[in-house]
Amino acid sequence: MRTTRQSERHFRVPNIYLLGGTVLALFCGALTSATPGNAHSDLLRSSPISDTVLSASPGEIIFFFSEPVVVETSDVQLVDSADAPYDLNDFHHHGDATNPGLGVQPNLPSGVYTVQWDVISATDGHQSSGSFSFEVVSNPLMGTPSVSVRPVDEDAGDSSGGSSINPVVVIVVVVTVGAALGTWRARRRR
Questions:
Q1: What angle, 0 to 180 degrees and rounded to 10, lies between the N-to-C axes of helices 4-33 and 167-189?
Q2: What are the residues whose beta carbons fall under 8 Å from the beta carbon of 147, sequence distance 6 or more?
Q3: Which of these, 137, 159, 123, 142, lies nearest to 42 by C-alpha position?
Q4: Backbone angles phi, psi at 85, to 5 degrees
Q5: Domain 41-149: which topology?
Q6: Whole-prediction pTM
Q7: Does residue 48 have a cis bond before it (omega within 30 degrees)?
Q8: pLDDT tens-digit readout, 131-166
Q9: In the chain, domain spans
Q10: Assuming Cys at both sites, which of 20, 101, 103, 158 could form a disulfide with 90, CB separation 3.0 to 4.6 Å?
């Protein structure tokens, strides 16, 4: 038969390891989820700006991403409302990998255009995608191109593809809940 001292040590030692492992897992999870490597290349802004009305066709679409992107493996296109392409298929960098550009066919006809982007981050390899729209209203009598801002479509706009759940955080939560239940069960058996 066990003595009380042996029984206490039997429960105390695993609980210390369990507590230490839980604290270590929480620390690692918090550290990993706070690193910039888990971010995606989010579109910060663009030119033309989403939902603008242009009196002349832009010569190029310029993107401003939160991280550098790999242009060679990215898929970016400009389409009209019938999904007909109007870009020059030349997604390229402007010296800074965070602000690539996309050439546009000259003299776009009047209409609503959508820029669809699917890029790979050069920093962490994560994929992000989204779209935004703008409208061209051609008027041959107007001299200097101007830009006026008004909504084109309530559903259009910058989309960064939604947020994702960090798998390390999920593992830490599962381990923590498991540790708490294990400790509770061990104490209940006493």
A1: 170
A2: 48, 49, 52, 53, 54, 55
A3: 159
A4: -75, 140
A5: Immunoglobulin-like (2.60.40)
A6: 0.56
A7: yes
A8: 999 999 976 555 444 444 443 333 334 444 444 556
A9: 4-36+166-189, 41-149
A10: 103
